[in-house]
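REQUEST ID: PR-0412
SUBMITTED BY: lab tech R.K.
PRIORITY: routine
TASK: structure prediction, single protein chain
INPUT:
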Amino acid sequence: MARHPGWFFTRAKLLDVLHGVAFESYERAIDAHIKNIRHKIESKPGEPRYILTVYGMGYKFADQ
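STATUS: complete
OUTPUT:
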């Protein structure tokens, strides 16, 4: 995501990149990983500036 700021990635695409295959049951695991990453890099994880949610689509790295 950091290599392509501004692009959004679906949960399935993130799983595919990480594991080579996307299983629907694992898509919610991406949410947990994003939450953990936000806690590490964001000053206010509840108000993210870097990893943003694209409602109904997935996630993107901010293009600031």
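NOTES: The CA atoms of residues 50 and 62 lie 5 Å apart.
REVIEWED BY: pending
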